[in-house]
Specification:
With 104 residues, the protein is mainly alpha-helical. Helices cover 50% and strands 10% of the residues.
């Protein structure tokens, strides 16, 4: 996603920058260190080294989400990259479609 995509979705670029700055500050806190210490990806449930987990917004910034503790989860890089700007329900539908494809 590029900066121009935010304008298309309707979220002000300055708001996005402000929320990204908040997220960078949260990464420095003991709250975040505790969050990644389990090493569990929120989406796939697999175990990873803490350094291999990324910060993901459940409601993406591009969709109006915020960098608040209630909206941030630890995710593996693969899940975070696949989720992109999906909302939680969209992600669940996506994962269900993958499960259906596997069973065919």
């Amino acid at each position: 996603m590029v900066e121009d995509d935010f304008a298309f979705i309707g979220v002000d670029e300055q708001v996005i920058k402000k929320e990204k700055a908040k997220a960078r500050e949260l990464r420095k806190t003991s709250w975040w260190r505790n969050k990644i210490s389990s090493g569990i990806c929120y989406y796939c449930g697999k175990k990873f080294a803490a350094r291999d987990l990324t910060m993901d917004h459940l409601i993406p910034l591009a969709r109006g989400g915020t960098s608040s503790k209630g909206n941030i989860v630890a995710a593996c890089k693969d899940c975070n990259n696949r989720k992109k700007t999906m909302l939680p329900l969209e992600w669940e539908d996506y994962m269900a479609s993958l499960d259906r494809e596997k069973s065919l």
